[in-house]
Amino acid sequence: RVSVSASSCEKFMAHLCLVADCGGTNSRLQLYLVREEEARKPSPGHRAPGKLIHEANFANEEYAKQGKTFVDIYRDFLGQAGKGNESVSVASIAVAGPVENNRVVFTNNNWSIDGFALESALAIGRVVLMNDFVANGYGVLTLDLGAGHGDRQGEAKDVAVIQAGEQRTQGAPMACVGAGTGLGEVYLTNPSTFCPTSLVGVKHIHFKGEPIAPIVNDYTAYPTEGGHVDFAPRSPLEFELLQYLLSKFGQPHRVSVERVVSGRGLANVFEFLAQHRDFSKRVDPKMRAAFLAAGDLQGKVVAEHASLGDHVSLKAMDIFIGAYAAEASGAALKYLPFGGLFLAGGLTPKNLHLIQGEGGPFLKAFLDKGRMAPLLHKIPVFAVLDENLGQRGAHFIAIKMLRKILGPQGSAAAPAAAAAAAAPVPQSRANPHAKSRPSKRGPAGDRGEGPSPVPPAWVLPLAAGVAVASLVLLRSGAALRP
């Protein structure tokens, strides 16, 4: 805890919160100073509170070559910030890999990060690790949707409205699909809503004629491996693309949709077209040379040349956008996100001109689901304009943890017990119900905005219904016997 005033009033007390996005290549760290008064106020539709006092990027490879780890990055970062001798209350770290038992092992270096070990080694009050796309899911909760339904000509501070759909159903599921280096997918549910209200034609749960409004930000984000579902061709040319990818990756039956819908996937599509009988002669030699020299940025070269009117690059973008839309609508049918479907990742804002527009290629493919098209018309779809959505989500979780630690009176006298309830997500990316769980950290998933012991509003009517049913059974002589 850092005292920023001689006053003992809690609104003048502040805490250091560290937010990190640790990928296979780089680690981006931010340090916030958060006043207790700010931490207590839920702020749906806004960035999590706090004053950013330092941020920096670090090349993981440079540290790994010297035999150093994330612990060294952390210490160097705090030293840069001039806070090397001060304690951090919470650290929220998004990582590019599957998290199990608050621990991640990276595949492209010999690093691993253990959240519980960091707490002990660095004297941090609470450390939580989450998959980077789970962090994107929580980042969705911080987006300013403005009017949110196209009333502002499709524009808001953080998003562009792709399809207004019906009015967003408060507390309904949400989903996020993001194409960038890879293809990530995450969905969010609100535990204060125990039935799919959007399917039964109501916007709220009612009790005694009064609406019970769900807590807007009482959401839990769940990891998926949706980017690795099968790529399903939708045209004769895409069927040929599938055959090409099967051969390229040595697969007998299927390839992941990520092989098409991602930066690397866009490069795969261009490679296919460059050797295709109908397109090979139309490849610009200069473009081909730039493509071959681009390494991991080949997808970027394709997108840039498409914007300049290159014929083959334009066709590659057309296939990419159609496949992206088809996968997004597949996710929409699985999760029925009447709280909103959000398109994230670096490729979304960079290609907004292809995604926006009622008659554009994206929505045309998105709604191409036969008899399910009317249902898809009802789902609000947003394009996320902020490419730092994951860091925003990690920041959101840091504040949520801090709120738990503070407790109802603002006292941090028992931070360990309070923080135990603040773990934000199931820790296995591949399986939210994995057997490996934190043994002493309480349930996975933060089930409330604040520390109040009051149960969710639906508990009382549910308990009353059970009690009435039991009484009827007893009076009728039909009670169960032991």
Helix content percent band: 25-40%
Provide the structure class. Answer: alpha+beta
Percent in strands: 15-25%
- Radius of gyration, in angstroms, nearest whole number: 24 Å
Describe the structure.
The protein is α+β, with helices and mostly antiparallel strands and 482 residues long. It has 17 helices and 17 strands. The protein has helices at 36-39, 60-65, 70-81, 115-122, 132-140, 236-248, 263-274, 285-292, 298-307, 311-335, 347-350, 352-355, 361-366, 373-377, 389-406, 415-420, 459-475; strands spanning 2-3, 13-22, 26-35, 51-59, 90-95, 99-100, 103-105, 112-114, 126-131, 159-163, 174-179, 183-189, 205-207, 210-212, 220-223, 341-344, 381-384. Strands 1, 2, 3, 4, 5 and 9 form a 6-stranded mixed β-sheet that branches. It has a 6-stranded mixed β-sheet with strand order 10-17-16-11-12-15, sandwiched between helices. A 3-stranded antiparallel β-sheet has the order 6-7-8. Strand 7 and strand 8 form a beta hairpin. Helix 8 (285-292) runs antiparallel to helix 9 (298-307). The chain is globular, with a radius of gyration of 24 Å.
Keywords:
482 residues; alpha+beta; six-stranded mixed sheet; disordered N terminus
Secondary structure: elements and pairs:
Blueprint: E1 2-3, E2 13-22, E3 26-35, H1 36-39, E4 51-59, H2 60-65, H3 70-81, E5 90-95, E6 99-100, E7 103-105, E8 112-114, H4 115-122, E9 126-131, H5 132-140, E10 159-163, E11 174-179, E12 183-189, E13 205-207, E14 210-212, E15 220-223, H6 236-248, H7 263-274, H8 285-292, H9 298-307, H10 311-335, E16 341-344, H11 347-350, H12 352-355, H13 361-366, H14 373-377, E17 381-384, H15 389-406, H16 415-420, H17 459-475
Parallel strand pairs: 2-5, 5-9, 11-16, 16-17
Antiparallel strand pairs: 1-2, 2-3, 3-4, 6-7, 7-8, 10-17, 11-12, 12-15, 13-14
Helix pairs in contact: 5-15, 7-9, 7-10, 8-9, 9-10
